[in-house]
Each structure stands twice: as structure tokens, then as C-alpha cells.
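Person: Show me a sequence?

Helper:
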Amino acid sequence: MAFLGKLFSALKHTRSSISDALEMLTGQKISPETLEELENCLVGADLGVQTVDEILGIIQKNIQSDFYTHVEDYLISILPDSPDVQNGSDVQSVIMVVGVNGTGKTTTVAKLANYYLGLGKKVHLVGSDTYRAAAVEQLTIWANRLNVRLVCNEKSQDPSAVLFDGMAAGKSLGSEIIIVDTAGRLHTNKNLMQELAKMERVVKSKFSHYKLSVLITIDANLGQNSFIQAKEFSDHIKLDGAVLTKMDGTAKGGIIFSLYRGLGIPVKFIGIGEDLSDFLLFNREEYVKSLIGRNK
């Protein structure tokens, strides 16, 4: 219920817009004008052209019945089931958090740490965003608040070297979850992607007993620009999932469908505020109901 209540509130604007458009079709004959209006509304919610076309087809096929239910069932069916986030696993894990600067990457690292601490895990942080001093400062504050160990090196400009030191320290301390904040921008986009690929190799070659996951932070307000960012990253490094950030009253929320259908990237967590607790494990049923459910 906590998930549904907070998410339902965060998606209020989008849900109201979609619901109003769907209500126009209830008990009515479909006209080209009403279909076009609904299509524009769904595209504006970032659902993606393919998904929108399929929704329109479902509505036309089921216009005389409860098409809401058919649309909800369809949207749920095209998303992955509950995400694998090492909730109860005893496997030692390292989570690299990647993404463009400004997408809430460093805050997401702190929220992930808080999430796993709540599960009783021994958590360790690594500050490898060596090109942005503010990131190290911010992560230091979060680490102190959470009372977790942070390894960083403000004098180093080599993210992979900091990662190695952080992984070695985490290994010696017996950390179960190591969460790594990575650079969001180097001198060029090519340099950034090469550095992230190098960090991936460091973990796989030097710390192979750790299960590696790479999560990308996606700003829910950026729409299809977020899709483009995710594609660029996925072309250079394997992305295991996304964290949808900045889910507030202005977020559209439909990008989850494009991410998964177009790039195979499932959303695993959702950030809906600035507090550490404003962090939700993704649930496809609750998400779809919060996105298009009837106004209440």
C-alpha cells in the first residue's frame, strides 16, 4: 500500500489526463477525432508509438466492454515480473550506478544503500565520480548519515583505480553489497563510455566472486531524451536495469515501456522524492494502475 499510495500521488497529473481521455470513449462510438485526441494524450505520456498503437487497437476491439481492464492487463503483460535485486540472496554483489549528470545518480546511490541496509545487508560505498568534486562531497554526507564506509580519493582522476581500492576494501571488510557512484561526464562522451567499460572489466577480472549489476538512472521528466541516453550507455556497457528518478507531480511515467520494449532494460526502482525513504521497488501491477487507473 505504501508503494501504491506514493506512486498514485506522483502520477496524478498523467493519470488524470489519460483517464479523462479514456472516459470520453466510454459508451460512445469511436470517432477519428476522439481517437486522435486519445493518441496524442498517450504519446504525450511517453508510452511510445508501438505501445500507443496497440492500446488503440485493444480499445477499438473492446469498446463495448470494460476496455480499461483490457488495457491494464495488456500493459502489465508487456513489462517484466518482479525485478531481481538480491533481496534475500547471500551472494555478494556490486552495483555500478551509471547515468548522465543531473539524473539523480549520487542520491540514488544513497537510496540504494539505505534500501539494502533496511534488509540487514552490510553495505559499502565507492565514490568513483572523480571528475565532479560535488559528487564526492555529497556522497560523504550521505555515508555519514547512513553510517556506512565510503572509499573515495579526491586527488585521483582515475575512476577505475578508485573502484579497485574500494572493491578491495569492501572485500576485506566482508561487505555484502558494494555500491559504486560513477562519472556522468568526462571530457567527451567516448571517454566516458570507455571508462565505464574499463570499470566493468576491473570488477569482472579482479573481483569475479562478486555479482555485478549495472543500473542506469533515468530522469522521469526527460521523456524520450532519457531513452536516447539509455541507448547510448547500453551500446557500450550491459545495463541490468534502470532507476526511474524524480517521479513527482510533473513526471509522465510512460518511459518504462520504451526502455523495456526498445532496449530490454527493466525499471527496478523508482525515486519519488528527496528523502532516503522516497525509494520504491518497482511493481508492474501497481505501476500500471497508478499510471492509467480510473480517477478516484
